[in-house]
Amino acid sequence: MDLINIALSQYGITEYSNAENPEILKYFHQTGQKWVKEDELSWCSAFVNWVAKTCGKPYSGKLNARSWLDIGIPVDIPIIGDIVILWRESKDSWKGHVGFYINESDRHIWILGGNQNNMVRISAYPKGRLLGFRRL
Known about the structure:
This protein has helices spanning 3-8, 22-29, 44-54; strands at residues 73-75, 83-87, 96-104, 108-113, 121-126, 130-135. The chain is of the alpha+beta class. The protein has a single domain, classed as Alpha-Beta Complex (endopeptidase fold (from Nostoc punctiforme)), CATH 3.90.1720.10. Helix 2 packs across helix 3 (44-54).
């Protein structure tokens, strides 16, 4: 199946305020992170892993967003569904964010991803935070 269609099928999945959302826990558990018991853990990479695995594509199997810099092939001109990896806090930090490329403008990249404001949704991120695009 197509990466972007699988990702879009999850649009709107959100963290619950007083309980764990089993749909979010599914992203962890079905990609080898069975020890995860709560959806408060950063889950953007778990979401991308789940989508990639569901589509039979390579996936990192890791929860850190920057692990996606080693998966697939690097591309300079992304197409819808390519992986976008961003830095978070600082470019030299281990922290990051990962999701699927939707579109871009001069200043922003629109990403479909998990754990974007605690849900699966499309959000705009500054282009200056880009670490790379990858194609699976």
